[in-house]
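note to self — DONT lose this again. spent like an hour looking for the file last time. sequence + predicted structure for the chain T wanted, 192 res
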Amino acid sequence: MALGVVGVRLRVVLFTAPLDARTFARALDRALDAGDLAQARALARAADAAWLARIARAALDVWGEQRAVVAALDEALADLRGEADSGLLPLRMVASLASTLGMLAAILALNGVGVPHGGLVALQAGLAQRLAVAQAVASVAVGGSTAILVLLARGVVRRHTKRLYDEAVRLIASLTTHAGDPDEGSGRPPRG
């Protein structure tokens, strides 16, 4: 289960969400500078589920109305932020659960649950206790190592998610500039 959760989050931030930000932004800028909205939309559609493409599609769907573009960009960025935060929570929960279950299995093993008591084990003095301790140590080791692995993966996911989010913020600034900022001249700083 832990590896499945880790695998899903790593796949999203390493393969699904990323896009070469510079190349995409340059191509989008060229299309918008040339006034070729169809080309800009085609670029955004071609990148499918990448975060930058989602941002671009949100803006290009309402392109032409400055306030609508800014509102769509704000909403798209909030969605990505929520997705990024919700992707980290399951990893932290799995790490906590793994270490807790390791300790619980150790306690049960030390209380004799799952450790053989009769038969040939009973012929050697202390063998049942040694088996219980070995099982408890193994349970703590598996739970702890699983928790460490998941927390390391969480660090990788967090680092890549922050980079993706920062790239999205830069693209929003560029798209807002192309759309024309509705707050220009109002004395308020631009949103983004």
